[in-house]
Amino acid sequence: MKTVNYQNGHVQFQIPKHWTEEKEGEKLHFYDAVSEDIFSLRFSIFTAKPPQGIQNVTVDDFMIASGISADYERIRIDEDHIIAKHEELDESEEPTLIWYFFEYARKKPDGNFELAVFSWSIDEKLEDDPLYVSYLNMVEELVKNVKFGN
Fold first, then answer.
1. What is the DSSP letter of 50?
2. Cα distances (Å, whole numbers) of residue 62 to 50, 57, 87
3. CA–CA separation, 55 vs 87, rounded Å?
4. Would you give the DSSP letter of residue 94?
5. Could you give the CA distance from residue 108 to residue 101 in angstroms, rounded to a whole number?
6. How many CA atoms lie within 13 A of 122 on its CB side?
7. How far apart are CA 46 and CA 65, in angstroms?
8. Which of these, 54, 74, 96, 119, is most buried using a 10 Å CB contact count?
9. Residue 106 in this model has a pLDDT that exceeds 90
10. Where do the structural domains in the chain lie, given as residue ranges?
11. Does CATH place domain 2-148 in 3.40.1000.10?
12. How many other CB atoms are there within 10 angstroms of residue 80's CB atom?
């Protein structure tokens, strides 16, 4: 594994050594170096102020105000760090894609919030393929182990 130090270590996470990295604006893309068709992980991060009019804003409040449904599966790291996990079907093109999202929200020490978004897509027909299932499990562990600087 190798460490990605986004914005000089502001966000750190581990990816397999053989993956390559590309930057598109503020978004990062990571590819399986063996075959880009197998796997492409996307990453971006946003900073936001607490929603106005709400006192003592929690990470849950922030996620809901940001449009992240309370119905999405939640992985609570601690009081100030929550991951929302969900998937969406994209039938706008062929093949039909399943998009997987891991949206990691955290409350910063200054009271503002950050949302780190990891996403990837697969052809719907490959949803149960053991390789893709293993990648999905790996990405979930990668996101659970994200480290933030201040």
1. P
2. 7, 7, 20
3. 31
4. S
5. 22
6. 18
7. 14
8. 119
9. yes
10. 2-148
11. yes
12. 15
Q: pTM of the prediction? A: 0.86
108 and 150 Cβ atoms separated by less than 8 Å: yes
- Which residues, at least 6 apart from 33, have a Cβ–Cβ distance to it below 8 Å? 18, 19, 20
Q: What per-residue confidence (pLDDT) applies to 99?
A: 92
In this structure, the chain runs to a length of: 150
DSSP run (H or E) holding 59? helix 59-65
Question: Each residue of 7-30: pLDDT tens digit?
Answer: 888 899 998 888 888 887 777 777
Q: Is the pLDDT of residue 33 over 70?
A: no
The residue type of 32 is D
d(CA 115, CA 110): 15
Find out whether 92 and 67 touch, Cβ atoms under 8 Å. Answer: no
Query: In angstroms, rounded to a whole number, what is the distance separating the alpha carbons of residues 14 and 3?
Result: 5
Position 30, amino acid: F
A 10 A CB-CB count for 134 gives 10
